[in-house]
């Protein structure tokens, strides 16, 4: 082993062998990462996923290596996106050393990962982080004894204060794999031995690969095959023998093998804990734990939720959508950028090109000013607030509070996360439906987002419009939209094929958010927004420009007018409001606003148009995102449902108003 | 008669004897979070969702899963 992993010294350039940070969620990996790299961070999405990986330079004994921060995981069995990415990185990057970061007080869960990393036979160091928290709870871990048993360095750290980091750095100079290995019971252990001998000798971590195969996951072995190929026919033959061993072993247990293996690992962890871990049997809850209990309290949880929403509204709705948007739109774009662009465009001799850039539907005057001046400030403040909720541990507790209402919609509390994100930007929220476990749930939430969750740009306009309404009018709007959400959710749960999953969610400890962490996360999300969503806005503007040039816009408006007049009972002018509204929300809303201000709409008509515009898909970028995530057919189906459905709800409301003789 | 997590009162501690589920995903998810037969759970609350403490891990569960988590009869009251 020592031959394979020589000690680091400055003369060997080994910058291509990174150091990995791996650990359970919420153990302070990011804090440790920030301490070691000094915020010189490059965050990238792992190809094909929303999983974020942070890279940064890290010097050990004069050599500069790359430190990689992986997502928090529960297990190395690649079952979720996060776990798959971590396994990929672990296998692909041939790390110099893996630093497992653990929450000292939750050593039991950490050991579950330690054992799996030990099976990969990679050089390993265990950082028992948040040692101060454990100490204050009266928990004692005998790190020396633990290091002896594992045969690898175990360092006690407090990343937020920099405690123990020099020791950790020093321990990285001569890394070696964990010598401790779990011995599973007879049948599993002999199966592991037999499978291991069937795997080529140059594949690393054969014991881990064998256990993954026994657990029904061929991914890690496939990975090893790509790194060190063997002839396909040889591999097919080996795989057949392996499958026979797996089947034979599985027949000896009443439970699935993957479960049996995890149980044996946990049993081993408990044995180990008995030797190194001491805690008071009962301890009084800490202040943070008490706060956590209030957040999910059957009674006090609700006022707390309202408080959070109000503060968020003040920050995102008032400060972001009001102050910041006003400044960006009127000053930055209105006074500086747009006049500048228009002046620059004067030199272009072709009027089509000029209009394409700075016309009514111009790339600069509309596409850029919309996405940067109106949406960006709202999205920025929203992401800041969202990261704060995430980091403090409230988001998971919000899912607990939301579980029951969401069950009515055939979903579980976890769906609250994309739905709340939808209040910021439906397009981004559509992407984050990936955190949901089944395709059915992802589709359901995507539909509900497109239908009934107004994004921040919509909300801003809706709130402005409500100034014209009495509180009864607002209540009707809210009731119709909520009823539609629940009704469609309930129906979709029954119509869409597939299973719903039960609610199992880990609640992270309530902690004071780390400012650096929040800034890094928010910046990463903003970068995502600029890279992924901005082009969609530009594309949408280009589409609108083409429609306008070809005269199709007028034609569409004329086609819609009878519908709008007959079914919804609205003036024909509102047709263009709806049409433009889909392509550019604030334009549509301004149109509506003007109509309302000039008293061209009765209050009844205003309520109807607000309902219809809320139920419409927020913007063309959202449709393009659905295409990307679920394919063209699904996107078409969603659009084919949402638009007529919004009209149908509007006409029913119109009918109800007339039949019941309601007049506001 | 066996008791399940549904029969526990907030503040009570009991040992898990079995998880009566044949859904592999569910079993794997619970075990990855440390909840397996043999461990002790302490119920924090039942509404709006079940919240249990397993060691230093806090888990929130649906009633549908809580009733599959079967407990030994000896229940300990912890203040």
Task: Give the topology, please.
The complex is a heterodimer of chains A (664) and B (79).
Chain A: E1 19-23, H1 29-37, E2 42-45, E3 52-60, E4 63-69, H2 81-92, E5 97-103, H3 107-119, E6 124-129, H4 131-136, E7 140-141, H5 143-150, E8 154-156, H6 165-171, H7 186-198, H8 206-214, H9 219-227, H10 232-250, H11 257-276, E9 277-278, H12 287-295, H13 301-345, H14 351-358, H15 363-392, H16 394-408, H17 416-422, H18 426-432, H19 439-452, H20 456-465, H21 471-495, E10 504-507, H22 515-549, H23 552-566, H24 574-583, H25 585-597, H26 603-615, H27 620-630, H28 632-659
Parallel strand pairs in A: 1-4, 1-5, 5-6, 6-8
Antiparallel strand pairs in A: 2-3, 3-4, 7-9
Helix pairs in contact in A: 2-9, 3-8, 3-11, 7-8, 7-10, 8-9, 13-15, 13-20, 15-22, 17-18, 18-27, 19-21, 20-25, 21-26, 22-27, 23-24, 24-25, 26-28, 27-28
Chain B: E1 3-4, E2 12-19, H1 24-32, E3 40-45, E4 50-54, E5 57-61, H2 63-66, E6 69-71, E7 76-77
Antiparallel strand pairs in B: 1-6, 2-3, 2-6, 2-7, 3-4, 4-5
């Amino acid at each position: 082993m020592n031959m394979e992993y020589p000690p680091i010294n400055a003369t060997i350039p080994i910058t291509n062998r990174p150091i990995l940070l791996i650990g359970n969620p919420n153990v302070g990996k990011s804090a440790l990462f920030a301490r070691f790299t000094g915020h010189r961070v490059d965050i990238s999405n792992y190809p094909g996923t929303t999983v974020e990986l942070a890279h940064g330079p890290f010097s050990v004994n004069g050599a500069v290596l790359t430190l990689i921060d992986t997502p928090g995981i529960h297990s190395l069995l690649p079952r979720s996106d996060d776990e798959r990415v971590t396994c990929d990185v672990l296998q692909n990057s041939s790390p110099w050393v893996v630093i497992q970061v653990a929450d000292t007080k939750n050593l039991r869960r950490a050991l579950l990962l330690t054992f799996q990393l030990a099976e990969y036979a990679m050089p390993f160091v265990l950082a028992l982080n948040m040692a101060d928290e454990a100490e204050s709870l009266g928990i004692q871990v005998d790190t020396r004894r633990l290091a002896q048993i594992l045969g690898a360095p175990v360092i006690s750290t407090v990343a937020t204060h920099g405690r123990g980091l020099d020791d950790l750095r020093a321990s990285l100079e001569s890394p070696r794999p964990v010598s401790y290995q779990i011995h599973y019971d007879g049948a599993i252990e002999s199966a592991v031995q037999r499978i291991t001998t069937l795997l080529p000798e140059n594949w690393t971590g054969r014991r881990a690969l064998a256990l993954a195969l026994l657990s029904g996951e061929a991914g890690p072995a496939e990975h090893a095959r790509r790194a060190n190929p063997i002839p396909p026919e040889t591999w097919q033959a080996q795989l057949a023998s392996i499958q026979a061993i797996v089947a034979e072993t599985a027949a000896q247990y009443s439970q699935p093998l993957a479960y049996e293996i995890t149980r044996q690992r946990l049993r081993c962890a408990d044995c180990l804990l008995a030797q190194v871990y001491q805690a008071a049997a009962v301890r009084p809850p800490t202040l943070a734990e008490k706060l956590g209990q209030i957040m999910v309290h059957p009674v006090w949880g609700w006022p707390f939720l309202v408080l959070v929403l109000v503060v968020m509204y003040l920050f995102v709705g008032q400060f972001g959508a009001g102050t910041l948007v006003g400044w960006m739109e009127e000053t930055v774009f209105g006074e500086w950028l747009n006049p500048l662009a228009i002046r620059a465009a004067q030199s272009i001799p072709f009027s089509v090109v000029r209009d394409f850039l700075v016309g009514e539907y111009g790339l600069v005057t509309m596409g850029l000013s919309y996405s940067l001046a109106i949406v960006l400030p709202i999205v920025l403040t929203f992401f800041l607030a969202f990261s704060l909720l995430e980091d403090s541990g409230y988001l998971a507790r919000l899912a607990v509070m939301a579980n029951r209402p969401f069950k009515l919609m055939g979903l579980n509390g976890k769906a609250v996360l994309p739905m709340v994100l939808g209040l910021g930007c439906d397009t981004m929220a559509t992407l984050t439906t990936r955190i949901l476990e089944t395709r059915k749930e992802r589709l359901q939430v995507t539909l509900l987002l497109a239908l009934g969750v107004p994004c921040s740009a919509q909300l801003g306009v809706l709130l402005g419009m409500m100034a014209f309404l009495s509180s009864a009018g607002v209540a009707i709007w809210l009731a119709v939209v909520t009823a539609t959400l629940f009704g469609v959710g309930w129906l979709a749960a029954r119509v869409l094929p597939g299973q719903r999953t039960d609610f199992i969610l880990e609640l992270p400890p309530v902690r004071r958010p780390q400012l650096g962490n929040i800034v890094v996360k928010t910046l990463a999300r903003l970068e995502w927004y600029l890279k992924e969503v901005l082009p969609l806005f530009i594309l949408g503007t280009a589409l609108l420009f083409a429609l306008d040039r070809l005269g199709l816009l007028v034609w569409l408006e004329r086609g819609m007018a009878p519908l709008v007049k007959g079914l919804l009972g609205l003036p024909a002018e509102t047709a263009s409001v709806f049409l433009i509204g889909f392509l550019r929300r604030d334009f549509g809303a301004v149109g509506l606003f003007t109509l309302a201000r000039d008293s061209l709409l009765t209050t009844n008509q205003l309520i109807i148009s607000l309902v219809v515009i809320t139920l419409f898909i927020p913007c063309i970028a959202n449709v393009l995102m659905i295409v990307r995530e679920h394919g063209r057919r699904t996107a078409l189906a969603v659009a084919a449902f949402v638009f007529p459905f919004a009209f149908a709800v509007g006409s029913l409301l119109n009918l109800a108003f007339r039949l019941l003789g309601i007049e506001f | 008669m066996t008791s399940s997590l549904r029969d526990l009162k907030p503040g009570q501690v009991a040992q898990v004897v079995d998880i009566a589920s044949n859904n592999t995903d569910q079993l794997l998810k619970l075990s990855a979070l440390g909840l397996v037969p043999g461990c002790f759970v302490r119920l924090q609350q039942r509404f709006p969702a079940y919240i249990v403490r397993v060691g230093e891990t806090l888990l929130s569960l649906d009633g549908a899963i809580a009733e599959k988590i079967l407990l030994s009869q000896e229940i300990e009251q912890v203040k």
